[in-house]
Amino acid sequence: MNGVKIMRATGSGLLAAAVLALLPAPAQAASGDFSWSTSGVGALDGVLSSPQSGRCYSLSGNNPPFYSSNNTDRTVRSYQSSGCRSEAQSTIGPGEFGHVFKYVKFD
Questions:
Q1: How confident is the model at residue 64 (pLDDT cuts 50, 70, 90)?
Q2: How far apart are CA 84 and CA 88, in angstroms?
Q3: Residue 76's closest CA among 26, 42, 32?
Q4: Residue 28 and residue 19: Cα distance in Å, rounded?
Q5: Helix (H), strand (E) at residue 5
Q6: Which of 2, 58, 91, 97 places its Cα 20 to 30 Å from the Cα of 85?
């Protein structure tokens, strides 16, 4: 009988683990800062500190593309349309510099 009880407990534990594995993972924040400028290197128009992965951010400024510095641990993709729904126009890896458009989303 003890063997049956152990098997049931193990079986239900495996079932619970399988169900948890199917649940979507919560969005995590990137570590670090993402900054941008509308007027070039050395200027600063805005900073996102620890931006949330998967969220579309609208950058302030009127003249995209912007010069940006991705000092986070995530890749950032930039878009020309709100909601980051269009095809990505640029991709900047962690620790890289580049140009981005008005909307950005972190992997």
A1: confident
A2: 8
A3: 32
A4: 21
A5: helix 2-22
A6: 97
SS3 12: helix
Peptide bond into 24 cis (omega under 30): no
The answer to whether 35 and 46 have CB atoms below 8 angstroms apart is: yes
Residue 14 φ then ψ, to 5°: -65, -40
pTM above 0.85, yes or no: no
Which one-letter amino acid corresponds to residue 71?
N
Q: Are 76 and 87 a contacting pair, CB within 8 Å? A: no
79: three-class secondary structure by DSSP: strand
Tell me the per-residue pLDDT of 6-16, one tens digit each, with 9 for 90 and over. Answer: 444 444 444 44
H/E stretch holding 14 reads helix 2-22
Instruction: Render pLDDT for 14-56 as a digit per residue (tens, 0 to 9).
Output: 444 444 344 444 457 779 999 999 876 667 889 999 999 999 9
